[in-house]
Amino acid sequence: MAVSFQVNGEASIWVDPTASGTPSLLGITIDGVRGRFIPRNEDVMTDTFGGESGIPAEVQQFLAWAEIECDLVKFDAAVLASVVALSMGGGTTLGTMGAAGALLRQQNYMYRTTILAPYGGIGPLNFPQAYIQDAQEFNLGTKRTAYRVVFRALPDKRDEGSTVGAILFNGSTTGISGPP
Fold first, then answer.
1. How far apart are CA 111 and CA 21, in angstroms?
2. pLDDT, tens digit, 9 for 90 and up, residues 156-170
């Protein structure tokens, strides 16, 4: 493949907080989506390589997660309220907290999150298990309202046993009607 510039075009965020199989458009971003994949590794130390003060003899891999950050400038307030409530432990309405200690994955408070950016480059990116993890900044006033969300996506592995084949993301757009 030749080296070339990549311009994906408008980025839209789709979520399925009710696990209906038909994601809803959460919103359109301003200045795109920023993301990063975070592999989790741990050093394996041995006396052969100097013990704890030496260098690792091996590095053990413990899967990965992703963080997706975007500023929504055009969004569906009802859909946003539903995913924010889930991130607060399954509160029933925006601003209402769920039970302290709620297990987000076990209690189905994680949901499918898909980034559509239709032209070339990377994408679509579909994260089967995600939730809003970080502070949600927003501005209110006479200038357009923008809402910042930071999603955290974990591998889609909800049963016990092997993590072989766990999906962090894929290119599925099943149930999405297309770019808005």
1. 10
2. 876 667 777 789 999
Q: Report helix, strand or coil for 48.
A: helix
Token pair for 113? 């999150």
User: pTM for the full model?
Assistant: 0.85
Amino acid occupying residue 153:
A
Q: How many CB atoms lie within 10 A of CB 111?
A: 23
DSSP one-letter code for 106? T
Total H helices, total E strands in the chain: 1, 6
Whether residue 180 has pLDDT greater than 60: no
> Can you give the C-alpha Rg of the chain in angstroms?
19
Question: Which secondary structure element, helix H or strand E, spans residue 86, and what is its range?
Answer: helix 77-87
The two structure tokens encoding residue 45? 């130390």
**Nearest residue to 85 (alpha-carbon basis) of 65, 112, 113, 104:** 104
Q: Are 126 and 171 in contact (CB under 8 A)?
A: yes
Percentage above 90 pLDDT, the chain:
44
Domain ranges of the chain: 12-39+70-153
Mean pLDDT calculated for residue range 20-34: 91
Other residues' Cβ atoms within 10 Å of the Cβ of residue 156: 18
